[in-house]
Protein 1
Amino acid sequence: MTTYETSRWYSPRLQCESTLSRWGHAGQPVLVFPTAGGDAEELERFLMIRALAPLLEAGRIKIFSCDSVGGKAWFEKDKSPEHRMWMQHQYHQYIKQEVAPAIRKDCRTDDIPIWTAGASIGAFHASAVVCRFPDIFSKALAMSGTFGIMKWMERETPTDYFFVSSPLHFVPTLAGRHLDLLRTRYVHFASGEGKFEDISESFWLARVLGEKGIPNYVESWGPDWHHDWVTWRAMMPKILGQWTE
């Protein structure tokens, strides 16, 4: 039986209530970002927790997940592009300032490195927070990722808030200690090449990271794997299992 806890609080950065859920009792903490518009319980509803149960019950990983306020903002067309880009930045600040400290408190270790994971828009967030905050997040599993998300905006150029949130934009500008630390981190891209998959998105960000000497790898699962939870339920247990052997 996988242990489960959830907490909820008002986030001043998001200006709304937010939820953080946890499964597992011990092991490496992994923050899993939902797909676009998903919530902290998405992993349970789509049977990912069941797929991860052997790793959770063995105490190899603890899974955390929070609401996808940042991902949801991209599709709120009643809000301006500027507001949506600002919300993306606020979401990452919420992850850094509120979620990460809550995870470390749960783990009873003030400086434990946190891994990230996510599929689709969740892959964007998983890779972005490692690149933005390498002092907190050390490894990302980005599955079936979409990284060029400016295509959903009604403007051609990013605002400053979005520029610092998108690794495709800010990573080429990195230097100094931030870049030095990020070069000790790792981003793993896993993607199928079946229906609704676009592995070129993963190669795009991988190339940007590689040009700055940031370790990464693109793993193709081939044409039989589609942009779907069936694929992600196979990917995540296998790869996290390899990482925690």
Protein 2
Amino acid sequence: MTSAAFSLRQIALTAFGPSLLFGLGEGAILPVIPLTARAMGASVPVTALLVGLIGIGSLLSNIPASMITMRHGERWAIVAGAIWCAVAMALCGWSGNLGVFAMGCFMIGMSQAIFSLARQSYLTEVVPVEYRARVMSTLGGSMRIGMFIGPFVAAAAIHFYGLAGAYGVGMAALVASGVLAARLPELSLHAVDKYPNTTGDKPRTLTILTTLHANRHVFVTLGLGMLLVSAVRTTRQTVIPLWADHLALDASVTAVIYGLASGVEMLLFYPAGKVMDQMGRRWVVVPSLVIMGAGLLLLPLTHNAQTLLLVAMAIAFGNGIGSGMMMTLGADHSPRHGRAHFLGLWRLMADVGASCGPVLLSLLAATLTLGAGIAATGVMAFIAAGQLAYWIPRAQARTGDTER
């Protein structure tokens, strides 16, 4: 679609509606998954493992998700991801068996990978590059809004139907997401599995390995930076409640602090995308990481609910202005042919970072102190800022517009 013919309002419902509904569905069931496991007799360690299966399922499914998207096209991959997640929620909510429940949790992670990769690939293709960051930021923002609304809708359903009500809300949202996604126009270019080589001979088969080799410079420069960003972002979700517990704050106070910080994040996704589009990616990416890093370094110095709230909101502000930056940079550098394979590898690196960040925090907290672990995460944010500040204008983007 050309820039002149493109209108964000025209695609808003079908582009962002499925993501908002997917986020609502997941937001409805994620808080009750541990409660369901405990009600089925799982111990606390087993419950933690079952919840962790969601992340493991996403991590292990990024590459298969790229293959599904390449083979069947973005639209039907999005629909399949939504329906697969609805089936997984049914298994979690009504199986009554911990083994089946574990499979359902893993399937939720699988659906996250398929749905998210296909959505990103689709919008990368149809949206003009001049609007790309705004669309990617809004895509991430719509998912966050859904995740924010989901628990409240689920709470009302739980009041009348018990824990099963939350799964019912989640399934309804996911089915609606799939129906809405089915209305997306199919791309003219999808399931492309060949690309010409430089010798002029017959086309070379496009695989994960050939995509990795062709884009190795991007993965070892920007990709490593994104891995660090993902580690910081995942860890900052953990450190705020942990430090609140360290300060002996009530759970209700902790929830209010976390909720207010989440609200700050949701207000910033579109302005952040507009700045990235008009001024360049580095003008948002670097300040986002610097603000988060400074907030994380200040967090161990807080001593009451008021100071913790201020720092938590600063961290949320930094994360909020960086909304969509990982998807935007991935889209900028993804090749037109084999885009799904590239984005699958990009998401795999991000998920590895997301898995390693909390582990590093745990190790540092166990061997040193919680404050030292939080400070180390802040230092990691500054390292990521330096890495990306250097490479964003230097890594050659496919679009040629990574830095304007």
Protein 3
Amino acid sequence: MNKADRYLQAGTRDNTRRSYRAAVEHFEVTWGGFLPATGDGIVRYLAEYADQHAISTLKQRLAALAQWHITQGFPDPTKTPAVRQMIKGIRALHPAQEKQATPLLLQHLEQAVQWLEQEAAQAAARQDLAALLRSRRDMALVLIGFWRGFRGDELSRLQVEHTQAQAGVGITFYLPHSKGDRQHRGTTFRTPALKKLCPVQAYVNWIRVAGIAQGPVFRKLDRWGHLAEDGLNANSLIPLLRRIFNRAGVSGDLYTSHSLRRGFATWAAANGWDIKALMTYVGWKDMKSAMRYIDTADSFGELAMGQPFTPATLDQANTVALTEKIVDAVYQGQD
């Protein structure tokens, strides 16, 4: 691969590249279509699978086919009026409610963290390094994932050298690229220390016991306490989180890695966060993305602790200050 090809390949996310390749292969091999395709061919392809796949899957395959034609210098057959009409018809005849992750309840987060704290204390008492590492890693994972509202792939790509934490003050994460950063300009995420369920202290405890100086923050851990060099795969987070919550006495099967992000968004909205403040903090670029994650029902109303706080709209500069005020309001009087 020459230098130009390397840079061109780096401009597309690995997951996107794999899914597009699979979509084109499905069109050509599984269905037996011909490339370059015509608009009529795309219509027949959609008709074949309209009652078998979700509309989101069909649209992803259209995006892959469109990308193939554009990069090969052919007209894009997915933009014809017939194809657009076909998508409308599929929506009308096969309506489907979008599946969303169940938001993690603050009560369940607290229950899991209390259990992990007990596990860590017992492991330290019997000098069981493997169990101590696992409980410290898992605690940092769920607390950072929730309070920072990270996606699963963002959690899996956090690097120690790109993270600065100061106990009792706050933590800063830098991600060179993420789903919301299409231009790969890099994004910095900040979270203050909390009086309870603190992600900063959880991170410090994990790094200290693991002795990690660089590389992925979250890694696989074998039964003997040996840490892997590579980071956790994003796809492994769902079974890992479900094991954590199930062992803590919570119905873990309800939750996925996205439940952390959606749980924080729901909690923040129920506790008075302005929608634009929430968008800035979590990293959403448009209102539609934010509203998909927020339950209109006050899911956390009975769990809110302390006095209510209604923030004003803010910019990036004072997002952290707002977060600190809200945290103080929520945990006021808590030990």
